[in-house]
């Protein structure tokens, strides 16, 4: 916290305090996490609320405001990718009745990169999942993540494997040789699979799109219950949906 820190840096520190687990945070918690002086923090919070970037909630809490959401919707991930993908996701859902996920590769370095979910469709019969739009998932335990990993070159993968692979369930792949074998399988089949590697009882099938100019690497996938996981049927459906989406993205 240097003396030369500007308003933007302070604002980003405040916004970085909001998470999946804590979408609403008290001023006391914000002060503790940011280290900002009480007077500075309260002036900043007042400005952010006035501009709609934050909103006040019950129990003296703050949450992300409508203006910040509105600005986020102007991203190409929303305007171009998600809007173009929605009809393809609907068709995939109608053909399977299962959760449909749209994700992109996002991270400052390979070792910190994750799958960022930018679209999701689910129904009453779909199995519950941990994902949400705007949420993130590990690359090595999710179908979309593995599909994205299979698009990376050797130099990128070497850096990726410098970080440990965290275990999400007893079935998670956490060693480099095993994951490299899985990546090779994904490349050979044209789609990735996971079996209870992120959530017990869930299986995912996903395919990456060829590169689209102006967008990060993209993957489209399904999450289904283990009992309904017919990979031979679902794999081709996902691959075709990814091809169709890629075609439409190239002309947008």
Measured by DSSP, the beta-strand proportion falls in 15-25%
The largest sheet, given as strand count, sense and whether it forms a barrel, is: 6 strands, antiparallel
Q: What is the β-strand count?
A: 9
Computed structural class: alpha+beta
Helix and strand run: HEHHEEHHEEEHHHEEEH
User: Mean pLDDT, rounded to whole units?
Assistant: 92
Helix content: 40-55%
Low-pLDDT runs:
none
Query: How many helices in DSSP terms?
Result: 9
Instruction: State the assembly state of the protein chains.
Output: single chain
Strand order of the largest sheet: 6-5-4-9-8-7
| Radius of gyration from the alpha-carbon trace, in angstroms | 20 Å
Q: How would you describe the overall organization of this protein?
A:
Residues 67-251 form the IclR-ED domain. InterPro entries: GAF-like_dom_sf, HTH_MetabolicPath_Reg, Tscrpt_reg_IclR_C, Tscrpt_reg_IclR_N, WH-like_DNA-bd_sf, WH_DNA-bd_sf. Residues 5-66 form the HTH iclR-type domain. This is IclR family transcriptional regulator. Keywords: DNA-binding, Transcription, Transcription regulation. This protein is α+β, with helices and mostly antiparallel strands and 252 residues long. Helix content is 42%, strand content 19%. It has nine helices and nine strands. The strands form two sheets. A six-stranded antiparallel sheet has the order 6-5-4-9-8-7, with helices on both faces. Strands 1-3-2 form a three-stranded antiparallel sheet. A hairpin with a 3-residue loop joins strand 2 and strand 3. Helix 5 packs antiparallel against helix 9. The chain is globular, with a radius of gyration of 20 Å. It starts with 6 loop residues before the first helix and ends with a helix. The relative contact order is 0.11.
